[in-house]
Amino acid sequence: METTNSISFNRRSFIKTIGLSTGGLMIGFTLFEACKPDSKVMIDLETLNYKDFNAFIKIAENGMVTIYSPNPEVGQGVKTSMPMLIAEELDVPWEHVLVKQADLDTKNYQRQVAGGSQSIRASWMPLRQTGATARQMLINAAAVKWGVDPSECYTEAGIIKNSRNEKLSYGAVVSEAALLEVPDNVKLKDPKDFKIIGKDIVNVDIDKIISGKPLFGLDYKVDDMVYAVSLRPPAFGQKLVSFDDTEARKVNGVTDVFQFGDKVAVLATNTWAAMNGKKALIAEWSSDEKLMSTEEHDLELTNLFDSDKLKVVRSDGNINAAKNSADKVIEYTYEAPFLPHSCMEPMNFFAHVTDAKVELAGPIQTPEGTARQVAGLLKRDIEQVHLSLTRIGGGFGRRLIGDYAVEAAEISNISKKPVKLVYTREDDMAGGFYRPIVKYRISAAIKNSKLVGYHLKETAVGSSINKSRASYFPAGCIDNYKVEAAQLPSEITTGPWRAPVCNFLATAEQTFIDEIAEELNQDPVKLRLELLEKAKKNKADLEWSPERMIGVIKLAAEKANWGKAKEGVYQGFSVYYSHNSYVAEVAEVVLRNNKPVVKKVYCAVDCGIVVNPLGAKNQIEGGIIDGIGHAMYGEMRFLKGKPQSLNYDSYRLIRMMETPLIETYFVDSNEDPTGLGEPSLPPVGAAIANAIKAATGQRYRIQPYLKYMEQVTEVVS
Amino acid sequence: MPTYNLNVNKKNHTVEADENMPLLWVLRDLLDLVGTKFGCGIGQCGACTIHLDGVASRSCLMPISSVGDAKITTIEGLSEDNSHPVQKAWKEVDVPQCGYCQAGQIMTASAFLENNPSPSKEEVRSAMHGNICRCSAYNRIEEAVNLAAKM
Prior knowledge:
Number of helices of chain A: 16
CATH architecture of the largest domain in chain B: Roll
Number of strands of chain B: 5
Number of domains of chain B: 2
Structural class of chain B: alpha+beta
Distance between the termini of chain A: 40 Å
CATH topology of the largest domain in chain A: Aldehyde Oxidoreductase, domain 4
CATH superfamily of the largest domain in chain A: Aldehyde oxidase/xanthine dehydrogenase, molybdopterin binding domain
Strand order of the largest sheet of chain A: 12-13-10-20-17-18-19
CATH class of the largest domain in chain A: Alpha Beta
Largest sheet of chain A: 7 strands, mixed
Shape of chain A: globular
CATH architecture of the largest domain in chain A: 2-Layer Sandwich
Shape of chain B: globular
Largest interface: A-B, 65 and 58 residues
Radius of gyration of chain A: 28 Å
Strand content of chain A: 15-25%
Radius of gyration of chain B: 15 Å
Number of strands of chain A: 29
CATH class of the largest domain in chain B: Alpha Beta
Number of domains of chain A: 3
Helix content of chain B: 25-40%
Oligomer: heterodimer
């Protein structure tokens, strides 16, 4: 693990400097720290006033640059792409950059969160300004040394040069530069001068990943640490009545067993003993008689469509009048089940609670919120909680919720030991904050072969469509437009799952658009383009750009040769705007033994400037395949509140032989970049459903689609 | 508890462990070799794949008492300097997203290529089908295995 408890540095960088308040855009502290490799002065950084330091950049006298990456790395690539933004404006060769994961530091960093595909969008200007400010200070220091005006100096790959052909390396002036005033309003590079942004940069952790170095939360260890596994209620809504730990305590390696809340913790000297100790516990739980099963959720959600529980989220024009005067109204219902997140690294967290402080370490998408929750639980000041971020073995939204970190702190607080709480796969799947079970009933009013009304009703357990999402396409394209939503209360916990709400909303709507096109006997791509022409007139009301959506539609259609597929290949179209990015997809399906098989997906993306194309493409491909896998196979069912799939023998995830080819195209753009962790997933469900309809004539409206295919083993390939 | 002599990455280790403790936890918790990952515990995901006498094996299902004097290779022992062709290909293709399953993927791929140095594309897909990548970096995994085969 990387630690930053103490470092060696040049004392002069202590000296207070002025000009710290550089306005809202700057992430706080644009000074940088002069780090002398040969200095023997060891200072405990916790005793320092952090405001005097740049939390992002350290430059050594040999010119090597350490950049701290603030946000959690969950596989979305920000540990590589965020430091790229700093290095670009600092003007150093990427080969001279060492990236380190920053710990939670609420004073120096903003928004240390991995969620909503927002890391790059939110840091685009602040991180570039951080790098540019440091660069300007290095220039200023060199100018003083040379006795020239800074305007006569420029930089090139970590070297400052002047008009007299003199040169100084960053390392040679870093000590002086750290003492200078922090300049305001430094000039950023023109995108055409970018040397790092826009280049293919390999994952900064690649060498550690391929050699098995400790990186992840599950790998984190300290001396005398004990391992904990918890027994939790088997059904959501159940309470612990009593337990017998006689056999559990006999397991070799088990050191302690205790109850906390409705859970029982088993502590042991190794993970396996803790797991076995848990298995040996005998517990009695409260009755599950009144807890709901999937069949009841299904029925109740359908009933809600016609109840008075529906609340209006958005309403344009008059949908009832449009329906009443229509030539025809079509209506279909689309359904999706609960989904667990299935992160490959099971939930786990390290906690060591002592009187003096609370140490936390592990995989978490929301370090600040989680640290605050722990502080609240233990009635500590937030300043006493120190949280180290590890690389995260997949999040998909599950690790936005820090319940497992809080639980680790609770167990450490009771046992007074450094504890690593580990979930078994079964704990992980049964202790989820699932993608909500959701239904969409959508109707369209058609008059004179035109779409004149669109009415969407959502019923769900847990999170629901908000005003922002109700304003995505096709809002703005239809005069009479209404979105309503109703909630079904449940003990089952739900939460964000990759592209929250949009992950199935897009499937339902983009499938429905195709159903309208069929009704109008119109090409589905042309219908979308036609609707978007109308949206151009209503732009003021929309957070998204109809032009950019048209751009990706045309690019995907062109690359996939839309409408001109080879014989035996059937195409399906879908497009969606979410998380500030635009993605259009064409899925190609063939029939094998009369069963549909997804062979290829063409994808066009507009995310503005692509910071790291190599990483960006990986995100796009991952989102598409993830989306296909869950659309095809994903489903968590409940029996009286109890999850019915507890491991991968009863829960199917997509695998290699089911993976289609993917061709990704990015729109050439000078717009500021937006995120990519989520946006390629929402459109793909409808792209494959629409292609399958073209291939088989059968319309898939209920996920998982596997339900439609009897005894099919090979679904996509 | 019984004592076992294990040969891991060409080094001998003596460990005291319950006879049923899976090799996965012996490696991770007793020998501090945490490169081998815990994913499912039932042999379904492949994150725990190691080589036992060169054969790709699921360490989460392998009691330490069944290992005997077989030579164990983990991701840490695949090469000293990331010079194994599969590691080189993984880096060139930039395979990982979260990276958690990659040790298992690499161990599966390296054992496979040892036995089948010039596989067809179908053989590669079939060989890697047992390893789940939740981030779905499958296309790059496939590309990297094919690239490694050419190295």
